[in-house]
Amino acid sequence: MKIILASGSPRRSHILSTAGFNFTVMVPDVEETFPDSMPVMDVPLFIADKKLQAVLTDTSVDNIVITADTVVILQDRIIGKPIDEADAFQILKSLSGNMHLVVSGVCIAYQGKQYDIEVTTKVYFDHLTDEEISKYLQECKPYDKAGAYAIQEWIGMNKITRIEGDYYNVVGFPMSKIYPVLTALME
């Protein structure tokens, strides 16, 4: 049995490795689209399942396959990855002084069975000045991250006043919920 992490995210690879698992990476070629009518809270698991179905056609059922998707939700609207610096600036401006949700969906498949995990964390931002946003964007370049920030960088250390829920979910991989499923499958 081998573990396949179907994700190109270096953060997910780092978390899974640090948790003590050996695995190979396979990046699914899937458009991360969803029906317009879908409730925003259902989107991460829907996309994680799309990724899983794409990967399962290329791997053995004797492998454990893990897929994940994480979204930032502000006022019932998904905030994706920024398209450029101006978009990232506007995203961070909208998160400033507000609470938003970080929602992850994780799918794990093994021997024809699928295990779905959904995790929600509330994140509270302090107010950000325009200068702080500009400096953060110049120094950290968070353009590949949903919500245009990473909790483990400057913004998390200085401008996130609290979280309610799983820290690693905000990083993008809720390991505390994944770990028990993986260890049970490996017994």
Describe the fold and architecture.
It is a single chain. The protein has about 190 residues and is of the alpha/beta class. The protein has a single domain, classed as Maf protein (Alpha-Beta Complex). About 35% of the residues lie in helices and about 25% in strands. Strands 1, 2, 3, 4, 5, 6 and 7 form a 7-stranded mixed β-sheet that branches.
Cα shape: elongated
CATH topology (level 3) name: Maf protein
Our measurement of the CA-to-CA distance between the termini, rounded to an integer number of angstroms, reads 11 Å
The largest pleated sheet is described as: 7 strands, mixed
Strand content: 25-35%
Number of strands: 7
Q: Give the helix/strand class.
A: alpha/beta
Count of helical stretches: 7
Rounded mean pLDDT is 95
Instruction: State the helicity in percent bands.
Output: 25-40%
Summed up, the domain count is: 1
Q: If classified by CATH, what would the architecture be?
A: Alpha-Beta Complex
CATH class: Alpha Beta
Q: What's the helix-strand series?
A: EHEHEEHEEHHEHH
What are the low-pLDDT stretches, counting only 5+ consecutive residues below 50? none
Quaternary state reads: single chain
Radius of gyration, whole Å: 17 Å
Summarize the structure.
This protein is α/β, with parallel strands linked by helices. It has one domain (3-186): Maf protein, CATH 3.90.950. The chain contains seven helices and seven strands, in the order E-H-E-H-E-E-H-E-E-H-H-E-H-H.
